[in-house]
Amino acid sequence: MIIRPQYMELLKTYRDVPLVKILAGIRRCGKSTILEMLRDDLLKNGVSADHIISMRYTSEDFDDGMTDKDMYRSIKEQMTGDGRYYLLLDEVQEIDGWEKAVNSLLENTDTDIYVTGSNSKLMSGEISTYLTGRYISIPVYTLSFAEYLEFKKQSGLSTRELLNEYIRMGGFPIVAFGNFDERSAYQIVEGIYHSVITSDITKRHNIANFDLFNRVVRYIVENVGKTFSANAIVKFLKSEGRSLSVEAVYNYLNWLEKAFVIYRCQRYDLQGKSVLKTQEKFYLADSSLKYCIMGFNPKSIAAMLENIVYFELRRKGYDVYIGKNATKEIDFVAVRRDERIYVQVCRRLPEESDREVANLLEIKDHYPKYVVTLDELAAGNINGVRIVHLADFLMDNKY
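Below the sequence we write its predicted structure tokens.
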């Protein structure tokens, strides 16, 4: 098992804090493994094995329907001794009313509780009634490039070779852990994607016209890194002779977000200092999701570089926005407490450098500004704008 230290450090920070720790992310991004790592760490730190209760809740295991009372009772029955118990509860969203059971355990027993889930139903509805102010949300993403290097350190490949592989193959741990060719990797990711679409979206929301839903998904995938609206999707479908309401498109986008397939990035007006409600962008939970649906195309790499940088900024704890500066666009404005950085992403310099650098130089403040690129010869500084190779940006925690 390869440790993911970022998550372990975060969980250690919140250990024994009276909050439910909720780890949420797309299926197969590594949440269950993080719970296994946590279990191992608890044992190493002297917690008795009989005071660690691990439960996995999957629809296959509970076809007959488990209630929140059943859940509470089955856990409580295992708490036969004195002292604190550590509850590691995997995929809890499969149990209706799980938050009631967890709240009762938090209130009535000496427990430290960790839960995972693959659908942000986990974060809505009854949770606001039962767990308000009593949980901490920890987003779990597919592997960062630094983590990918750890998975591949026995491969004999150089960092640059592994970066090219990471761009093409993505960061799902199951893919990184194996030695798959491109075709096999995309088949694995396609299986994950269909599992999400079937279990977390189509069945849950009773989508009748799957073909139309699939076309909306394809439109979003084709337009990763581009601003578009629900109206734009409706007009596009109309041009194909298909009919769908704006409200239905909003529902589809919302359901894809709740299943952690896509992530919404809002625009930030640098002059008005406000978040804008229109022309957002969406990014895919992993770049391999695009390639498994549409096949790999070198022309799409530029947009997927943006996708990779977006998630790296989120992993580092930034709130991430698209920057609007009058008529100019900044790929990312990343804010973390009182820190801020501006980032432009491009595949090659120097042909793109003038526009990318000029857009950054028009921002009249002293926060750090970066152009992130795949160009091997472009590292340097242009009037205070740092030019950074993508590998260095992904591997260096100073950014």
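The chain is about 40% helix and 20% strand.
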